[in-house]
């Protein structure tokens, strides 16, 4: 575990600008999701908006495998796709849950956020899954304050999710964020309270519960990106970029 970089007030202001664009993209895309719309159309909408605000899509061209870099601005993950769904010609259908994850780079800093949307009338299970996942994000954020330990955040997410009978994905984690999209520390959505690094004011974190209706186990698709639930049950994903303070964390992607 490396040193977790602390951000100055000026740097946090630059990150706020990134976070604002992330929030605006999620609101815009969420307002446009409709049955019959292709996921690629949402992606084009998002890219155009980010560039109009002087930002750059952070996910486009991201990856460790030079042969298979992420092609989209958005991750669009439908139903049993947990995260990293590639936007393509697939049409959105009534009853689906659609997770939208977006990263923005501007002025040398990053913002990252995600929300899950229901399309038309969705099942009671999916409604509850979305609600519990979003609540777990705020439970985690409530523990992200100077003096607490990193896994106080993780444990708060896990407690809320498992109390509802759902499971947190263990193979994927939240992360520090700043001059890089992914920085230390890794932020699991499960863990023991009182363990992990001590949080300090000025740490900027992307907290992102990924919650499955069934098993926590996941598989990676043939495209090398889409992560799916092993049992085919639905998954939801909510994420905010926050800055740790001595009091309540400040949400930069509000």
Q: What does this 3D model show about the protein?
A:
The protein has 254 residues and is α+β, with helices and mostly antiparallel strands. It has a single domain (9-251), classed as Alpha-Beta Complex (Creatine Amidinohydrolase). The chain has four helices and 15 strands. The protein has helices spanning 9-32, 39-52, 124-142, 150-163, and strands at residues 56-57, 74-78, 81-83, 97-106, 109-118, 167-168, 174-176, 183-187, 204-207, 210-212, 218-220, 227-229, 235-237, 240-243, 250-251. The protein has a five-stranded antiparallel beta sheet with strand order 8-7-9-14-15. Strands 1, 2, 4 and 5 form a four-stranded antiparallel beta sheet that branches. The longest helix is centred in the N-terminal third of the chain and has 24 residues, at 9-32.
Throw out a few tags for this protein.
254 residues, alpha+beta, Creatine Amidinohydrolase, four-stranded antiparallel sheet, 4 helices, 28% helix
What is the CA-based Rg, rounded? 17 Å
CATH superfamily: Creatinase/methionine aminopeptidase superfamily
**Widest sheet, order of strands:** 8-7-9-14-15
Strand content: 15-25%
How many domains in all?
1
Tell me the distance between the termini: 29 Å
CATH fold type: Creatine Amidinohydrolase
The best one-word shape is globular
Q: Which blocks of ≥5 consecutive residues have pLDDT under 50?
A: none
Structural class by helix and strand composition = alpha+beta
Compressed to H and E, one letter per element, the order equals HHEEEEEHHEEEEEEEEEE
Which second-level CATH architecture applies? Answer: Alpha-Beta Complex
Number of helices: 4
């Amino acid at each position: 575990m490396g040193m977790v970089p602390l951000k100055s007030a000026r740097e946090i202001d630059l990150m706020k600008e990134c976070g604002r664009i992330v929030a605006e993209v999620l609101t815009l895309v969420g307002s446009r999701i409709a049955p019959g719309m292709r996921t690629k159309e949402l992606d084009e909408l998002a890219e155009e908006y980010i560039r109009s605000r002087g930002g750059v899509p952070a996910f486009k061209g991201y990856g460790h495998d030079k042969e298979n870099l992420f092609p989209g601005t958005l991750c669009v993950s439908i139903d049993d796709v947990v995260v990293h769904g590639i936007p393509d010609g697939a049409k959105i259908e009534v009853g689906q849950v659609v997770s939208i994850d977006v990263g923005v780079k501007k002025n040398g800093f990053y913002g990252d956020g995600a929300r899950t949307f229901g399309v038309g009338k969705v099942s009671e299970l999916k409604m509850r899954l979305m609600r519990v996942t979003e609540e777990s994000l705020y439970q985690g954020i409530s523990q992200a304050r100077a003096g607490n330990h990193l896994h106080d955040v993780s444990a708060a997410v896990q407690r809320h999710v498992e109390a509802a009978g759902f499971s947190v994905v263990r193979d994927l984690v939240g992360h520090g964020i700043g001059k890089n999209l992914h920085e230390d520390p890794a932020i699991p959505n499960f863990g023991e309270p009182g363990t992990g690094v001590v949080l300090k004011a000025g740490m900027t974190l992307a907290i992102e519960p990924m919650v499955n209706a069934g098993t926590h186990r996941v598989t990676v698709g043939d495209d090398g990106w889409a992560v799916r639930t092993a049992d085919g049950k639905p998954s939801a994903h909510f994420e905010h970029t926050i800055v740790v303070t001595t009091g309540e964390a400040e949400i930069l992607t509000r």
